[in-house]
Amino acid sequence: MNGVSILAARRTAVMPKKGAFGALCIADLARDVILATLGDAGLTVGDVDELIVSNALGAGGNPARICALAAGLPLRVAGLSIDRQCLGGLDAVLLGQAMISSGQAQIVVVGGVESYSQRPLRATQFSDGRLPAPYLRPPFTPWADRDPDLHVAADLTARTAQISRSVQDAWAQSSHAKARVRAAQGWPEIVPLMGQRCDGFTRPLSPKLLARARVLSGSITVANCAIEADGAAFLVLASAARAQKHTQSGHCGPLGPMHITSGVSLGGDPSEPALAPIAAIRRALDLALLTPKDIDLVEMMEAYAAQAIACCAPFDFEPALINVAGGALARGHPIGASGAILAVRLFHELARGYGLAAIAAAGGLGGAVIFQRP
Questions:
Q1: Burial group, residue 234, by CB count within 10 angstroms (0-12, 13-18, 19+)
Q2: How many CB atoms lie within 10 A of CB 224?
Q3: How do beta strands 295-300 and 215-217 pair?
Q4: Which residues have a Cβ under 8 Å from the Cβ of 19 and sit 6 or more positions away?
Q5: Residue 246 is assigned to a structural domain of this protein
Q6: Which of 101, 136, 226, 305 lies 20 to 30 angstroms, CA to CA, from 45?
Q7: What is the domain count for the chain?
């Protein structure tokens, strides 16, 4: 991918909706993370050419511009906001890569931020005098019969793939257990905010707690799907020339820069949104001339345990290589930031070789990016 490298990557802790970050707007969530990544890279705000921000639940406008101004980036940094729902954080990485590869920029900060706590109220207005009709989620297709409730769609995936509730619950229990181990060791990627240094939802899950979990649809429960949450994650991307300068300056951290090898976002059947990452993973592997056996670490989005299991199955990844410090089931799902969090996790976990980040999004979208650390 034309030598584009990631120099630094950080995130906030992820906090449940209306929790520790409930009073923070998206600029408050993003500012310190942006500055921390620049500091890690040995850069100043004046070095930044562009800021690309994924945000799915905001009130429109240009959230990236607000975050750029809040972080003290130069006024010339216009900010580019994107909304591809859960996919957006990884899309920001690919857009930043494309901008640098085309010669438009040398240093681009990319990522995502989401405040479920301060999500604006939405309503459809009518021209015939009816009162506005509130809604929680917009349509993701023009066809109501092919725009399923995501809990229902995840349960359909589980039934089709014969993934029982017990298997989903075991995945969730493992996700929390791995995250608790990492929390005890400390999270080097987390920028302390409001005193929070660990993800707020991680907990010991027992079979008894899992059995009592409220059912959302069929085998899908509040324990085996990711909760609504607040958080932010950002990465600093650089051209090959700037990355070389960065390494020579000594600001390379214990692992050094991580390269972007390949990546793709694809649309699939909107009736089966959970399965869309499968085609994206295959395409990203083909572009990189790799096989699943070449992948050393996997960060698979756990919007639902069933979705993560179904998307890993065709590739026969070693279980020990998947979400090594837990996944979204153990931290929550700040939609616009979740894809970027996967990339941040790989930046701090991948010591060598290839890492894969993959995620699904409403509307039948799937994204996958492969990174390499030499």
A1: buried
A2: 30
A3: unpaired
A4: 117, 200, 229, 230
A5: yes
A6: 101
A7: 1
Cβ neighbours, 10 Å, residue 347: 24
* Backbone phi and psi for residue 40, each to the nearest 5 degrees, phi listed first: -60, -35
Is there a contact between 336 and 55 (Cβ–Cβ < 8 Å)?
yes
Q: Dihedral of the CA atoms 41, 342, 170, 297 (nearest 10)? A: -70
Grouped pLDDT means (10 residues each) for the chain, 374 residues: 86 98 98 97 96 94 97 98 97 98 97 97 94 93 94 97 98 98 96 97 96 98 98 97 78 84 97 96 98 98 98 97 98 98 98 98 97 95
CATH number of the CATH domain containing 29 = 3.40.47.10
90-114 in b/e form (b: 16+ CB < 10 A) is: bbbbbbbbbbbbeeebbbbbbbbbb
Give backbone dihedrals phi and psi of 280, rounded to 5 degrees, phi first: -65, -40
Residue 239 in domain: yes
How distant is the alpha carbon of residue 222 from its chain centre? 20
Host domain of residue 342: 5-119+227-373
Distance in angstroms (rounded) separating the CA atoms of residues 179 and 78: 37
Catalytic residue among 176, 246, 333, 348: 333
Q: Does residue 158 lie in a domain region?
A: no
Residue 337 CA from chain centroid, whole number: 5
Is residue 200 assigned to a domain? no
Alpha-carbon distance of 13 to 201, in angstroms, equals 10
At 172, list the tokens. 């969730």
pLDDT > 70 in the chain, percent? 98
The yes-or-no answer on residue 333 being catalytic is yes
- pLDDT tens-digit profile of 106-132? 999 999 999 999 999 999 999 999 999
Q: Which of 25, 86, 225, 312 is catalytic?
A: 86
- CA–CA distance, 237 with 225 (Å, rounded to integer): 31
Distance spanning both ends of the chain, measured CA to CA:
15
